[in-house]
Amino acid sequence: MKSIRSAVTCSSGTRYAPETDTLWLALSNATVSCTTTATTVTVSLQAIGSVRVAVFLQEKMVMDFVYTDETKIISISCPSESAQQIQICKLSEPHYGILGVSALICDGGTCSPLPPAPHHLAFIGDSITCGYGIDAASPEEPFSIATEHAAKSYAAQTAKLLHADAHILSYSGFGVYSGFPEESCKNETDLLPLVYEAAGFYHYQPEAVILYLGTNDSAYLHLFPEKGAAFQAAYAAFLQKLRSEFPTAFLVCMLGMSSDLDAAPFIRNAVAAAQQQDNRLALCDVRSIVGTDFGANHHPGATTQRNAAKLLADLLRKHLPF
Hints:
The protein is an alpha+beta fold. The protein has helices at about 5, 125-130, 155-160, 190-200, 215-225, 230-245, 265-275, 300-320; strands at about 10, 15, 20-25, 30-35, 40-55, 60-70, 70-75, 85-90, 95-105, 110, 120-125, 165-170, 180, 185, 210, 250-255, 280-285. Strand 5 and strand 6 (about 60-70) form a beta hairpin. The protein is globular, with a radius of gyration of 20 Å.
């Protein structure tokens, strides 16, 4: 049995542990993919914490499950005689758990890596970027990992439209200046810039970086509107940091898919000020496509996420050679 790393293609951000021949997936929509001629592919999946995992065969979901702190061995049946593509996708966000993939066995054939994607995108965001609650039956339904579906998020769908891989750093409840406020207090713990520093995100060099933050800050600004200037300064500082670490990337700041009205004018101001010296920066306001479909806790539903992806993809095509 050859090393799993030599048999598959991994999304960026995947970590390899050679001592156990395991690939560790933490980020939303992190994937392990291969082309196989086998009749059955068996693989071991280990959850640390709670994860939602999907298996796709020829881009069709054939398995979908949630599990916590256990190891599963799954068998994927490949009935066609021609080569087929298999993808294992972590649908849940890193906050709740990570997924280990190992012990890949191909019965009656071989597994080989897919060619690398021709384009590369990076996304930084909160629950909207995670695909929070997309599969919930009602907007009143509370959050569950079983309804989080990162592959249906605007981020993953934009990447698919542009034939790109997606490096998605996203955490529900996180903000730039304040995470979602607890007991009407500023949340200084759940800040994406702090996670960004620890994630080593800058090692990935994409063609475009898409920033969608402000929804949770907006909840704080709704309580303390006098903090708008402080939020704008924090947003501008993070934007400047992204530009310094991705000097050639096109930057996009998104807003409008959810309840970010209190933060929106300050995001616009920060972007407009930065554009005075940066002609590779754009604002993508998606309010025009927000529908009446909602996921858990009134988060954007699948249709709204899909329409936002189309708008973002169109904007990126105007500025980059996709």
